[in-house]
Amino acid sequence: MEKRQELYAGKAKSVFATDDPDRVVLQFRDDTSAFDGERMESLARKGMVNNRFNAFIMGKLEAAGIPTHFEQCLSDTESLVKTLTMIPVECVVRNIAAGGLVKRLGVEEGRELSPPTFELFLKNDALHDPMINESLAETFGWATPQQLAEMKALTFKVNAVLKQLFADGGLPLVDYKLEFGLFKGRIVLGDEFSPDGCRLWDAKTRDKMDKDRFRQGLGGVIEAYEEVGRRIGVDFT
After folding, report:
1. For residue range 127-162, what is the model confidence (pLDDT) as tens digits?
2. What is the spatial distance between Cα 9 and Cα 35, in angstroms, rounded to a whole number?
3. Where would I find the SAICAR synthetase/ADE2 N-terminal domain in this sequence (predicted)?
């Protein structure tokens, strides 16, 4: 597999072409951002930690029958993934009230949500990823009703797998976002799953173990990511 030119550089990851049009290299950088890129910082080891964390999670999801774009790790910071046509809609599940839900509705942080909520957001940094619904997604051509239904079903299947995985490590899965794309006409989980895109708390202390540590200036960001990984079985050596 030959790595070629850079196709895209996001806030924390870069995508490179390969000699296979159906495969690209996903590079995890040490860059960390918050508030739609208004705050940026480089954190040592972050690229390696998120790459290995993501590979572990994607393996667990594949084993549970959830199709992902992940193929294999190529290095500490790079993975080979399928080339997807991304759907610009983020799927968010909330098991516990936190973050944007608390701000929008004035509910108490930490409230258990039963059943979990499911929300859609348009992936658009310039507009600060506005909340949307199925009707808007269909009207503007961001996703079809069939795609949305499959994305929702897969998102809740992910929830069932990962809630238990993290609970076994003493870590309630508060909420998370997923992105999907099309690979040869099939809906496939894309992007990444790491503490950058979910909220995880320590079950006993309620300490935040995710990117909220960066957003809120709590420090110990990568140390928290590594602790989460160790609790669920990620090998960072």
Report:
1. 999 999 999 999 999 999 999 999 999 999 999 999
2. 18
3. 7-231
- Is domain 3-82 in CATH 3.60.15.10, yes or no? no
- Alpha carbons within 13 A on the beta-carbon side of 27: 17
CATH 3.30.470.20, the chain: domain bounds:
85-221
What tokens appear for 91 in the block?
């799927």
Q: Which of 185, 189, 20 is nearest to 176 (CA)?
A: 189
Rounded CA gap, 173 and 94, in Å? 8
Please give the pLDDT value at position 182. Answer: 98
CA distance 163 to 168: 9
Q: What angle (nearest 5°) sits at the alpha carbon of residue 226, between those of residues 225 and 231?
A: 100
Which SS3 state, helix, strand or coil, does residue 206 take? Answer: coil
Q: Is the pLDDT of residue 36 over 80?
A: no
User: CATH 3.30.200.20 spans which residues of the chain?
Assistant: 3-82
Q: What is the chain's mean pLDDT, rounded?
A: 97
Question: What tens digit of pLDDT does each residue of 15-32 get?
Answer: 999 999 999 999 999 999
Topology classification of domain 85-221: D-amino Acid Aminotransferase; Chain A, domain 1 (3.30.470)
Question: How much of the chain is in helix, strand and coil states, percent to nearest 5?
Answer: 30, 35, 35
